[in-house]
Each structure stands twice: as structure tokens, then as C-alpha cells.
Specification:
165 residues; mainly alpha; Rossmann fold; 2 domains; two-stranded parallel sheet; 6 helices; 10% strand
């Protein structure tokens, strides 16, 4: 959630994150800032999002499809309340298609699939080798990110050396 907020800030989009590692005061401030319009986007992890009540919420974007259909209904129920209009967008990978089918079964509604966009779903789920390669690439990018961040900050801080005992 924090990483997404940092990326939004780089695009000059006011955003705040709420998640389990934030204090209750930090979560309440982020939520209040969003409600009063000080923050345009609120990024919430699944656990932290529970119990959020926001009037006239127009959009909910799911970064992933929950494996429990009731959780999906709970998430999208945040928008379009009390007769208001609302749009829920969910990003879905092939591994999650079965979860979409479970949601459609529970809600007895067909979820519209938008395929005309620049980020099409892959044709099939990744196999074990592809997942391993994708994870290696993710770790490489993560290491590169932190290495570049440390360079920008001036490398290691001088004067704060750990003593070995």
C-alpha cells in the first residue's frame, strides 16, 4: 500500500495508505483526509479496509480478486451505496479466474470483462518455472530499487557503525 502511494505521489496524485502496520491515529487521519477531499486516493489492504464507511464513494479498484466471494462483495459494497452510482474495477490474472466464477455464482450476476485495454490478461496461468522466473525478476528489481534509493540518499550513513560483540 505504501509503495502504491509513493508511486501515486510521483504522479502528483494525493494519496494515503492504511494498513495493519500503521497506528490507529495514522489510519484515522488518512481516512479523514480522504473523506474531506484532502487525499484523492485511499489505498487500503484487505484487513485495514474492513469497517470503512465513506459516503458517496464512486470507485473501488481491486488490485487482486479475493479467494472468498463474500470478501469481494464486501469490498465493492463500499461504492454505490444508498442508491448512489458506483463503479468497481478489478484487476484479474488467469490464476484468479476461478474466483471470478465463484463471485458470479454467489451474486447471481455476470461480471463484465473489459478486454479492450492496454494490459490484457495472459492466456493461461503461469507454470511453476514461469512463476519462479517472475519471482527472480521481481527480487532483482527490488534489489535494484533499493540500491538506487541508497545511492540517491548518499549511500551508507557515516558515524553509525554497528559494533560486533
Amino acid at each position: 500500500a505504501d509503495k502504491i502511494v509513493r508511486n501515486l505521489h510521483k504522479k502528483r496524485i494525493e494519496a494515503a495508505a492504511i494498513h495493519g502496520n500503521k497506528s490507529q491515529n495514522q489510519r484515522q487521519k488518512a481516512l479523514l483526509d480522504f473523506k474531506v477531499g484532502k487525499k484523492r486516493v485511499l489505498v487500503a489492504t484487505d484487513i485495514a479496509a474492513r469497517g470503512i464507511d465513506i459516503d458517496k464513494l464512486r470507485h473501488v479498484i481491486n488490485y487482486d480478486i479475493p479467494n472468498e466471494p463474500e470478501t469481494y462483495v464486501h469490498r465493492i459494497g463500499r461504492c454505490g451505496r444508498a442508491g448512489e452510482e458506483g463503479i468497481s474495477i478489478s484487476i484479474c490474472e488467469p490464476e484468479e479466474n476461478a474466483f471470478v466464477a465463484d463471485i458470479e455464482k454467489l451474486t447471481r450476476q455476470k461480471i463484465e470483462i473489459v478486454s479492450d485495454h492496454p494490459f490484457p490478461q495472459t492466456d493461461r496461468p503461469m507454470n511453476a518455472a514461469e512463476k519462479k522466473e517472475a519471482e527472480k525478476e521481481k527480487q532483482r528489481r527490488k534489489q535494484e530499487f533499493f540500491a538506487n534509493r541508497n545511492k540517491k540518499k548518499g549511500g551508507n550513513r557515516q558515524g553509525f557503525r554497528r559494533k560486533n560483540r
